[in-house]
Design brief:
By secondary structure, the protein is α/β, with parallel strands linked by helices. It has two domains: 24-272, TIM Barrel (Alpha-Beta Barrel), CATH 3.20.20.70; 320-394, Orthogonal Bundle (Arc Repressor Mutant, subunit A), CATH 1.10.10. Helices cover 40% and strands 22% of the residues. A hairpin with a 2-residue loop joins β12 and β13. It binds iron/sulfur cluster (SF4). Iron/sulfur cluster (SF4) binds at residues 33, 36-37, 40, 42, 44, 79-81, 114. Iron/sulfur cluster is lined by residues 33, 36-37, 40, 42, 44, 79-81, 114.
Length: 394
């Protein structure tokens, strides 16, 4: 392949002080699933053993020819469903990562998994391969809701997968839940939240269901006449869940994420703190200082390009300092601790308050945003209006 060419030795125009000692994140996209969920809008396709074999070979090739050899301290297998991969394949991909650059002995190595494919043999194998963190896509602890979403597992299956993960030695375990499901009441939602708390994960993510225009779930909702709750009820669901997670000892550190002490997702923190990461696999995005690029999302085309020795990149962009500053601000505002304004100003040579202060003032006066002179942060009520606040920077 022709490697993307963000200059490592010569910083790009518009790039300022970046601490190269901060590790790079590596992202590996695994675009295969055992079934397609009714709401899914990700880069994925049905499991195809022959294509998986070819994918593993070319993703290793892509990693080996990455455009930077900067040291990494996190690796993240996302999908799709990474747990459809056999441990031997995961091991080979991790060896390729470690061969291409320094990867610290204490690196966080996360794998997303679905309960039905997270068998004991695979979980043990992933641990042996070096995976340190597991993120299980539970979505709901109610079987009827799981069926509506087209998930293959049941509530019992999710609980059993958590047990298997713990038995395999995963002591950094995250569970995902999805709220605002069609017909879901506040009580039904909180039933899942309580079930999650009872499983005692180290980290949890709560996402709002987004029913995109052509989703099969939208047709099904029309057929059975179900709807998502009004916005004010969704807000109540969100706040009530966070209250329960607070009480259970979790700390909210991002709009959708809570963790026990020392269990934040180090990899995802890179997205929210102006970090750099390189993505591999179909549809994977990369950001290296001012440079951003993404791979072609079609898996067969991605594989064919790499097999032919061609570049799998589809789009490439060099961001201006102003664009980098804006993004650093609105991504940083996702964090409960907010964004350190002086850091953004230093990295991107911008006066944040002079540029955005007037537009932010109504949110500060309205109690959605706090400016303590050092950091700008959303209040929890402000998180409900996050998109409106972040629009100031777009
Ligand atoms: S498991 Fe995830 S990526 Fe796969 S179809 Fe379902 S939502 Fe999409």
């Amino acid at each position: 392949m022709t490697a993307p060419a963000p200059a490592e030795a010569a910083p790009s125009a518009g790039t300022r002080a970046v601490d190269e000692s901060i590790g790079l994140g590596l992202y590996v996209h695994v675009p295969f699933c055992d079934a397609i969920c009714t709401y899914c809008n990700f880069t994925r396709g049905l499991f195809d053993a022959a294509l998986v074999r070819r994918y593993v070979e070319v993703v290793i090739k892509e990693i080996a020819t990455a455009p930077t050899a900067r040291a990494a301290d996190t690796i993240y297998f996302g999908g799709g469903t990474p747990s459809v991969l056999e441990p031997e394949d995961v091991k080979r991909i991790l060896v390729a990562c470690r061969s291409s650059r320094a990867v610290g002995a204490d690196a966080e190595i996360t794998m997303e998994a679905n309960p039905e494919s997270a068998t004991a043999a695979r979980l043990n194998g992933y641990r042996d391969a070096g995976v340190t963190r597991l993120s299980l896509g539970v979505q709901s602890f109610r079987d009827a809701e799981l069926a509506t979403l087209g998930r293959l597992h049941t509530s019992r299956g999710a609980r059993d997968a958590v047990d298997r993960a713990r038995q395999a030695g995963f002591d950094d375990l995250s569970l995902d839940l999805m709220m605002w499901l069609p017909g879901q009441t506040i009580d039904a939602w909180l039933e899942s939240v309580d079930a999650l708390i009872a499983m005692e994960p180290d980290h949890a993510s709560i996402y709002l269901l987004d029913v995109y225009p052509n989703a099969p779930l939208r047709d099904e909702m029309a057929r059975v006449g179900s709807t998502q709750a009004p916005d004010d009820v969704a807000a109540e669901m969100y706040l009530a869940a966070l209250d329960r997670l607070d009480e259970a000892g979790f700390q909210q550190y991002e709009i959708s994420n809570v963790a026990r002490p020392n269990h934040r997702s180090r990899h995802n923190m890179k997205y929210w703190t102006d970090g750099s990461w390189v993505g591999f696999g179909p549809g994977a995005h990369s950001t290296l200082r001012a440079d951003r690029w993404s791979n072609i999302p079609d898996t067969a085309a991605y594989v064919a390009r790499l097999e032919a020795g061609q570049d799998p990149t589809q789009a490439r962009q060099r961001r201006s300092a102003a664009d980098q500053a804006s993004e650093a601000m609105f991504m940083g505002l996702r964090l409960a601790g907010g964004v350190e304004v002086a850091g953004v100003e230093k990295r991107h040579a911008i006066d944040v308050r002079a540029r955005f202060g007037a537009a932010l003032r109504p949110f500060i006066d309205g109690g959605q945003l706090v400016d303590d002179g050092n950091r700008l942060r959303l209040t929890r009520a402000g998180m409900l209006l996050a998109n409106e606040v972040m629009a100031v920077f777009v």
